[in-house]
């Protein structure tokens, strides 16, 4: 038998940016969809049932980002969506511009050559500088390159929201395309492909309460996409392979719930404000990174000078509170975060940064539990002189 995870009832789960707990409605829909066994490419009734389930989910995912259903290409997750976007415009004519705080699946997701790739810097608050973007694009304009810019909608570590709509305008004026990794932003802020101006948008189901291993690249019409996986005609020939029917169904249900919940993000914001206020009362020397920037309503990156993030994460875990140190996307390993480095955060501060991320299931009890455990840890650390008193 597979051991079940600790009950959410006796833990405070505050790591939604790593993954959100699967929603009850999603779990039920997923289980039911496992019974839809037909191959969606088959013409018989069983196949048609699977196709119908996929297309219903496609409509719901498209609605979450104000896109047309036919613009949605289902992938195995956010990582593949990013890789597909980056591979889509490969070739000699393109020059890549990536913000320095992109997720590793973007930074390492394409065939980049140093001569044709520019890393775009961010401010101390973790926001891209649009003037620098414009200057960089202008630099290579006369050389005849087409710019391909990847700028995430919101950062996974700090929650810092990027000015994607403004960047899109600059990129389009320069004759280029803009891809935005919206894996963390989806369901946490309103996203509309038209307003954003993005040509491609990456999404992942498990960050919004869907199952893992399913995501999408949403592509504006007329933007060509070179498939990464070839051979089959699935996903309008953009992504070969028999579809993950149950995963796609789960994504559809999660997207529908996330769209409805966008109206209620205020309560998550209030809980985050209480958390930050409480944390700063306990450790007035702590810094909320990206604190002055527009941020996702659910994300708080709290850096305690002189503390070690892993000590805090382990201490909190033992007290029944789940948070992460910087980005724990890949393996939970703790190493200097490229995001905080790009923001110019001093190493002594960066090494004490924890990410606390809330979601639809977060309660005021969770916040109290976090603050109780955080307070006890900081007190102990101060007593052992690891943190300046
Ligand atoms: N992009 C961002 C900003 C993320 O935070 C993550 C995962 O944490 C990914 C992409 C990768 O998504 P997936 O886990 O679905 O591959």
Write the layout of secondary structure elements.
Layout: E1 12-13, H1 24-33, H2 45-64, E2 72-75, H3 78-88, E3 94-99, H4 104-107, E4 117-120, H5 130-141, E5 146-150, H6 164-173, E6 177-181, H7 193-196, E7 200-204, E8 215-219, H8 234-237, H9 245-261, H10 265-282, E9 287-289, E10 299-303, H11 309-318, E11 321-322, E12 324-325, H12 338-342, H13 347-350, E13 353-357, H14 364-383
Parallel strand pairs: 1-11, 3-4, 3-5, 5-6, 6-7
Antiparallel strand pairs: 2-8, 7-8, 9-10, 10-13, 12-13
Helix pairs in contact: 1-9, 2-9, 5-6, 10-14
Pyridoxal-5'-phosphate binds next to α3.
Properties at a glance:
single chain; 389 residues; alpha/beta; seven-stranded mixed beta sheet; four-stranded antiparallel beta sheet; 14 helices; 13 strands; 38% helix; binds pyridoxal-5'-phosphate
